[in-house]
Write a structure and sequence with these properties.
Blueprint: H1 2-12, E1 17-21, H2 27-35, E2 40-43, H3 46-55, E3 61-64, H4 73-78, E4 83-87, H5 90-102, E5 107-113, H6 129-136, E6 142-149, H7 157-173, E7 178-180, H8 187-192, E8 197-200, H9 202-205
Parallel strand pairs: 1-2, 1-8, 2-3, 3-4, 4-5, 5-6, 6-7
Length: 215
Amino acid sequence: MKEKIEEIKREIGNNITLVAVSKTRSNEEILKAYNLGIKDFGENYVKELITKMDSLPKDINWHMIGHLQTNKVKELIKRNIYLIESVDSIKLAKEINKEAIKNNKKINILIEINIANDPNKTGIKKEELETIIKEIKKLSNINLKGLMAIAPNTNNTKIIKKSFKEMKELKNKYNLQLLSMGMSNDYKIALEEGTNIIRIGTKIFGERRYKNNML
């Protein structure tokens, strides 16, 4: 793991946030990465995330990167979530804002865009972005920091590159700070296209072992 983390850090430099995707990973694996200098971890399921938040070092920056259901927001906002990357509706944003007000917090979020218009993926259509940004900016306890996307499910690097380029253009158009895109198999393309957050799982931890009780 040490060699893999050092290799990635050399590739990305000091201005890119490396999020270690730790879903299904044990506390021991996460602590190993933490002790090697990783401070940002990404989780896909609220139940798993809050269990880890409650038991692992308090200075970890936790990123919610999976689909977030409105009925799971309350438990998440009670804790110190660093960034919710997967906001994909006004309804969800309003629920986050409501719970943030109750807990006297400001919550940092990214809007997730389904850049490939893939019916099997979550995220808004890019054509909806302007309307959603306007609505989110009305919410008092949400800080809209940027955008997130998952690359199209293809091995065609030209298609992936085009999608990432569109994301960078949208980030710039709306004068947003953060852009989260790029995973183990495509983060080098994302770096070329201007991402400042990458989400790496298997390249750090190895192949994932799935469990059935994480939902």
